[in-house]
Amino acid sequence: MACGVGLGGRRGGVGDALRGSPDYQFTAGGQWIAHPCDIIDSDIDATRPEHFLTAGTEGFDYLPEQYFMHGPPENEVLATTIFSGEHAPETA
């Protein structure tokens, strides 16, 4: 956005809306791409444990649905997980 703040969203209505609008995708912080693995055990690693949103977090186990998002390089990634390829070989 030229002024103000962006709209953070992932998957669902925000992350998968308006596929033909790059302006909307930049505002939303990315575009949902795929859901290859369903809900599986995941190791979440904090990439910025000093950030106020992840303060005191080094990593944890979680049972989320994993999915891919495309996003602009200026997005600040605070946590990551690795797709092993076990459920979707194309993700390894």
List its traits:
three-stranded antiparallel beta sheet, 12% helix, two-stranded antiparallel ribbon, 20% strand, 92 residues, alpha+beta
Structural features, described:
By secondary structure, the chain is α+β, with helices and mostly antiparallel strands. It has helices spanning 12-15, 22-28, and strands at 31-34, 42-46, 59-62, 68-70, 79-80. It has a domain at 31-91. The strands form two sheets. The chain has a three-stranded antiparallel sheet with strand order 3-2-5, with no helix packed on it. Strands 1-4 form a two-stranded antiparallel ribbon. The model has no long low-confidence stretch (mean pLDDT 78).
Low-confidence stretches: none
How many DSSP E strands?
Answer: 5
Share of residues in strands: 15-25%
Largest sheet: 3 strands, antiparallel
What does the overall shape look like? flat
> Helical percent range?
10-25%
Cα Rg? 15 Å
Largest sheet, spatial ordering of strands: 3-2-5
SSE order: HHEEEEE
The rounded distance between the terminal residues' Cα atoms is 34 Å
Mean pLDDT: 78
Number of helices: 2
- Based on helices, strands and strand pairing, what is the structural class? alpha+beta
InterPro entries: Class_I_gatase-like
